[in-house]
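[Help] Beginner question about ligand-bound structures

Sorry if this is basic. My supervisor gave me a protein sequence and a SMILES string for molybdenum atom and asked me to "get the holo structure". I don't really know what that means in practice or what format the answer should be in. Inputs are pasted below exactly as I got them.
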Amino acid sequence: MNKADRIKRMKVPAVDPALAKRLPPGQVLTERFPILHEGEVPVYDLQTWTLRVFGEVEREVTLGYEEIRAMPQSVLTCDIHCVTRWSRFDNRFEGVRFRDFLKAAGIVPKSDYVMLHGDHGYTANLALSDLDRDDVLLAHSFDGEPLTDKHGWPLRMIVPHLYFWKSVKWLRGIEFTNENKPGFWEQNGFHLNGDPFREERFSGEALPIPEDEWEKKEFD
Ligand SMILES: Nc1nc2c(c(=O)[nH]1)N[C@H]1C(S)=C(S)[C@@H](COP(=O)(O)O)O[C@H]1N2
Ligand SMILES: [Mo]
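Answer (accepted):
No worries, everyone starts somewhere. Holo just means with the ligand present. The predicted complex, written as structure tokens, is below.
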């Protein structure tokens, strides 16, 4: 049986019918908050931390942490869906909406695609239209507290309508590109777009990641 067939055959526990519409196909609801990433958790000095906006923009900018905290802030509640099959409802993040960020930083995009860069070389590609929405946030806080180191402090992207691998933790760069080049997981067999309601999980066959991978991870 190939990977896709195995996933289709897995039993998914029943959910409250009132909430079922919010749970994408093949997902399991959890109330815990799993921690998933490749590599080490970066250590920062906020005095030297920067976020760089570059590539196909009218003018590149590099921002300090305080400049981002001084931008208009929003609190958003969203559902998150990880491709390893866990979903978590009603997550309250605080930060700067991507739209407000572009405006406040004076960024004028000249291309339709974006590569997000996290520390230690993690990347995720997105269409600009997937970021230019009211529910996309550059988040610094979760549930009224600063993000924990492992959940991406001091700044992570939150793109709730796509699988959570697109929500880059330890965000350091926003690169505007003419082509939709694949990011880290997209180069490793995951879908270029990643809509959970369409089950856009994989771009091909056999992946080395079991579907219950997240059960073995750390939580907080
Ligand atoms: N920089 C970075 N961001 C990342 C990852 C990563 O490995 N590095 N993993 C992604 C994946 S696959 C998921 S599911 C979410 C997990 O976020 P969490 O640990 O806060 O649950 O972060 C995403 N962002
Ligand atoms: Mo993930």
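A couple of things worth pointing out: The pocket of molybdenum atom (ligand 2) is lined by residues 36, 82-84, 164-165 (CB under 6 Å). The longest strand covers residues 86-97. Feel free to follow up in the thread.
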